[in-house]
């Protein structure tokens, strides 16, 4: 058993609770699907979002999807000049039988520009 980190990000069109929660759920569900996640093996999930998103914590989406035993936290993303706006990033810390090289990171919508090496 190894401890791995799964990264991902997505963007939203509007700073609304619905947009933030729906996009975050879509991102988490895609990470689950591609990495065959067992929720009981998730140790923690860290979210960050750009400072133009402030209507709801992205971690609420994880709780609504059943991540009730994992530690979840939200932070502000650094405000870097010319960076992607309305962006939610995630890092899932997971106990897994796969190694870090086998992880499928997920970047959706405009956030795919953050990791062109994956596409």
Summary, kept brief:
By secondary structure, the protein is an alpha/beta fold. The chain has helices at 17-35, 59-64; strands at residues 2-11, 42-49, 71-76, 87-96, 106-107.
Biggest sheet strand line-up = 3-2-4-1-5
The average pLDDT score comes to 95
Instruction: Based on Cα principal axes, name the global outline.
Output: globular
The level of helicity is: 10-25%
Domain module tally: 1
Using only C-alpha atoms, the radius of gyration works out to: 14 Å
What does this molecule look like?
This protein is α/β, with parallel strands linked by helices and 119 residues long. The chain has a single domain, classed as RutC-like (60s Ribosomal Protein L30, Chain: A, 2-Layer Sandwich). It contains two helices and five strands; from the N terminus they run βαβαβββ. Strand 2, helix 2 and strand 3 form a beta-alpha-beta unit. The termini are far apart.
Give the SSE layout.
Blueprint: E1 2-11, H1 17-35, E2 42-49, H2 59-64, E3 71-76, E4 87-96, E5 106-107
Parallel strand pairs: 1-5, 2-3
Antiparallel strand pairs: 1-4, 2-4
Provide key terms for this protein.
alpha/beta, 60s Ribosomal Protein L30, Chain: A, five-stranded mixed sheet, 2 helices
């Amino acid at each position: 058993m190894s401890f791995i980190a799964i990264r991902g990000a997505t963007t939203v069109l509007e700073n609304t609770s619905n947009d933030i929660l729906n996009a975050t759920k879509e991102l988490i569900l895609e990470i689950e699907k591609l990495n065959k996640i067992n929720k009981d093996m998730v140790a923690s999930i860290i979210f960050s979002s750009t400072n133009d998103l402030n209507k709801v914590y992205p971690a609420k989406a994880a709780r609504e999807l059943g991540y009730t035993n994992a530690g979840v936290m939200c932070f502000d993303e650094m405000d870097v000049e010319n960076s992607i706006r309305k962006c939610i990033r995630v890092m899932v810390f997971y106990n897994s039988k796969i190694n870090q090289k086998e992880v499928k990171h997920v970047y959706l919508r405009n956030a795919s520009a953050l990791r062109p090496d994956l596409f």
